[in-house]
Design goal:
The protein has two helices and 27 strands. It is mainly beta.
Length: 413
Amino acid sequence: MSPGISRSVLAGACIWILLAAGCGGSSNPAAPADNSGPPVYIYAGTGAPGYGQLGLAPRDTRLYSPQDVVFSPDDAPFIVDWNNHRILEVMADADTTRLIAGVADGDFGDPCVASPTTCTDIVAADAKLNHPTDLAFLPDGRMVMCAWHNSELFIIDPTTGLMNRICGNGARSYNGDNQPAVDAYVDLPVSVAIDPQGRVVFCDQGNMIIRRIEDDGTIVTIAGIPPVLVNNALQYQFGFTGNEGPATQARLSFNRGQIASPSGRVAYDRHGNLFIADTQNNCIRYVDTNGIIHQFAGVGLSPGYAGDGGPATAALLRQPRDIAIDNNDNVYIADTDNHVVRMVDSNGTIYTVVGVPRPEGSSPLSPSEVLAQNGKGAHSIRLTHPYGIALDPSGRLWIVDTEDSVILFRDRK
């Protein structure tokens, strides 16, 4: 049995997941008998957004607009509980949540004193954060965290519980590349991935660029065009240009401003290609190992919902915000404002795999509606602005149903 998955959740799904034989009774419903697709189960959250007590089973823990779920090298799920300003781990041995970073009461703040003082050896589970959005694990087991509204990135050592700032100083701005990352200004670092060489790559959302921290700690831009200072004001180089050319000459477009929502996640495939959710351009692009950027899904610019069963490059997406890629080169897309998850197979054909398309401004479901969907088929459930998706080590698809404040997983059968 996978140590990262609740035994109580899996008990009701056992006849489909085939992780155990002779399962007994469960509160989970039976798998759907129709053609509505594989069943989808609630893993964490109650469907009621708000502050949640820790130390409970994940299904009993209230979340507040979660952004992502990330798996550690030993298969433990970590939940980015965005509007509670904290990172949670689900303890496999006890099937309960515990605090990794942030503060237990969900309050927000800045873990660091004013620059230029260094921010090192901070107790992560006693450090106020301001809307963390993503995590990634380094090869040595440490985790990199995007503290989004803090405009900083941290490394957390799970063995000591301490965290250190590695990029940004809290100033939401831009002051150039080719300098130590700890001295660089960043503006809403929203997502992070580790490249094949073990380097930290992140989306600097407000600055419309993808940046990398080199082995010597220097920061560089690897996609997008950085802001330009004109008459003492930064001019942001957003747009939709550059396909089939150098990624550093292409324009990207993400949400920015004081009321921006998180957008622009990044992920690597097994070949070393960097995928980018180019959210405001309503498409997915990728940068190959030669630094050339390509269109992958969505026509670009035009939002909508269309194209299933056809080429992904001819499909319409609406504000896609996350990507996950399996070992068979299937690319999953959180088509956020269509309220669905889509998949592009290795032949380049796009399909909807979870959710029913809904109007862009659809309201969240009620808690009772959320709970009533537990165990329903993937093609019949309703999502509300799913911001995050992930694949666990077994290849199972996880969905962060952000505005319904639950974490879901789809049975593989």
